[in-house]
Design brief:
Elements lengths: L1 H5 L3 E3 L2 E3 L6 E5 L6 E6 L3 H20 L2 H17 L1 H12 L3 H21 L6 E3 L6 E9 L2 E5 L5 H14 L3 E5 L6 H13 L7 E3 L4 H4 L2 H4 L5 E5 L2 H13 L3 E5 L5 E4 L5 H13 L11 E5 L3 H13 L19 H16 L3 E4 L3 E2 L2 E2 L2 E4 L16 E7 L1 H10 L3 E2 L2 E4 L3 H9 L7 E2 L15 E2 L2 E2 L5 H7 E9 L8
Parallel strand pairs: 7-8, 7-10, 8-9, 10-11, 12-13, 12-20, 13-18, 17-18, 20-21
Antiparallel strand pairs: 1-2, 3-4, 5-6, 6-24, 11-23, 14-17, 15-16, 19-22
């Protein structure tokens, strides 16, 4: 596909060029195995060049009138809107997203771009009083300088854009490393959008590479002051450790093991709809997905029957078919891992109400129940189409089970009494929770992030200002200070 081959390059200091590494990252369609592109990897030397280019270009960009910076972002939004059908096709081809998923991702991407446009004008300074006579304290909000962004494969266009656009709007330069499975949608496609929008060279650089080639160069390099990472908690811990050793700030958006709680007074049919979407959207490859569905025993039988029936009706197949609701997992390793996990959980005593099977990278949905309380799968983030149904007796037990996880990203509570739902939600140790809704939500101005092993820091809205700027104190003495010697 020419779309992919045209973008199969490194983008450094405004130039499209092949990487200098001795091997290639091969970009495959996860559904049919078609080779989409081959990209020679970037070396540690090229990562250095990207960071140096960003450093060189950043100060002039920071000094640019924020209204002018905003104009570039406005053009980027217009380009995304004009090319939406083409980008949607790329999402379907490169990551196996269904048409529904591609539309969902692009809708959010446009909303986040609209917020980034406003963000360019958001930073505000302060004048603070001083106990010293004649002194004025000015506190300025200034860009951090250069931001390193590492993005995942599941929502690559959105989750790259989510850090890149605000960082640029606030006067920073960026070096972006997309996931190896989605180098185009998560990387060079963004470079093309911003290049065509008139972003000056050097402000956004994209390096398509792998830790096997560059080690921790992306994290240890002296230029970036902030690293924004979205991915697994295992890798996130490594990112945090390396950045701490190099005195860099981090924003970590990591995994989840969200619980969707269905209380005894819930609208069962509506809760089933919310739970099925929350677990199986994009094949379950979503950090906010409802891994665990907790059901009050008073309605367990009714909920379970309706849930299994709805899951069994989902269409599994070619993501290019608009009727498909569940497409392929991102690669064969992930498909094999999910199938093995289901088999092992059943062998350990769980009951499979639906036992999904793998056909290439397609994995049909599984629904497991009767899990022992100490089942290891209850503690995991399952990045695939597997639902765990867990009964409970009363609110207190629901809260205890929901909190019995190292993660704390999202969640939901279904109830006929909204304030009851809020009270339960307040007891769940999680960064986000939704009453009478699904677990998968993201909005441009609401703080997004998790507790415990689900991450550090927040993104969106004012949190972006906190993430990608720093404060500078300048005092002005209008009179004369008195010194003791």
């Amino acid at each position: 596909m020419s779309f992919f081959t045209d973008l199969a390059h490194q983008y450094i200091d405004g130039e499209w060029r092949p990487g200098k590494g001795s091997w290639d990252i091969i970009d495959f369609n996860p559904f049919n195995g078609e080779k989409l592109a081959s990209i020679p990897v970037a070396t540690a030397e090229e990562v250095d060049q990207a960071y140096r280019a960003a450093q060189h270009a950043q100060q002039a960009w920071a000094d640019t009138n924020p209204y002018a910076r905003r104009t570039v972002l406005e053009k980027a939004l217009k380009i995304v809107e004009e090319r939406e059908p083409e980008i949607a096709e790329a999402i379907v081809a490169e990551l196996g997203g269904t048409h529904l998923k591609a539309g969902f991702e692009l809708h959010l991407a446009k909303e986040f771009l609209r917020e980034a446009i406003q963000l360019a004008l958001r930073p505000a300074g302060q004048i603070l009083p001083s106990p010293t006579e004649g002194k004025e304290n000015r506190v300025y909000r200034v860009p951090v300088g250069v931001v390193g962004v590492i993005s995942p494969f599941n929502f690559p266009f959105l989750l790259s854009l989510k850090s890149v656009a605000p960082a640029l709007a606030l006067g920073n330069a960026v070096v972006l490393k997309p996931h190896q499975n989605t180098p185009i949608c998560g990387g060079t496609l963004l470079a093309k959008v911003f290049e065509d929008a008139g972003l000056p060279a050097g402000l956004l650089n994209v390096v398509v590479t792998d830790i096997a080639e560059i080690g921790d160069t992306l994290l240890e390099h002296p230029v970036p002051q902030v690293i924004s990472f979205t991915g697994s908690d295992k890798v996130g811990r490594h990112v945090a450790t390396v950045c701490a050793a190099n005195l860099k700030r981090v924003v970590l958006e990591l995994g989840g093991n969200s619980a969707l709680i269905v209380l005894d007074d819930a609208d069962v049919d509506y809760a089933v709809d919310a739970a099925v979407f929350s677990r199986y959207v994009h094949q379950g490859q979503v950090c906010m997905a409802a891994n665990r569905i907790l059901i009050d025993r008073a309605i367990e039988a009714e909920f379970t029957e309706k849930f299994v029936a709805k899951v069994a009706s989902l269409t599994v197949g070619d993501p290019a078919d608009p009727a498909t609701q569940i497409g392929p997992l991102i690669n064969s390793s992930q498909a094999e891992s999910i199938s093995r996990l289901v088999d092992e959980t059943v062998e350990s005593g769980a009951t499979a109400l639906l036992h999904g099977r793998a056909d290439g990278n397609l994995v049909s949905p599984s629904v497991l129940t009767g899990l022992p309380a100490d089942s290891p799968v209850l503690q995991l983030e399952i990045f695939g189409p597997v639902a765990l149904l867990v009964p409970f007796d009363g609110e207190d037990e629901a809260v205890r089970i929901a909190n019995d996880t190292p993660y704390g990203l999202s969640g939901a509570v279904h109830t006929g009494n909204i304030e009851r739902g809020v009270r339960v939600g307040q007891r769940i140790h999680t960064g986000m929770i939704h009453i009478n809704d699904g677990t998968v939500h993201d909005e441009p101005i609401v703080p997004f992030g998790g507790e415990k092993s689900s991450g550090l820091g927040r993104l969106n809205g004012e949190s972006m200002v906190e993430a990608f700027t720093t404060q500078k104190w300048i005092s002005v003495q209008h009179g004369r200070s008195q010194f003791p010697f």
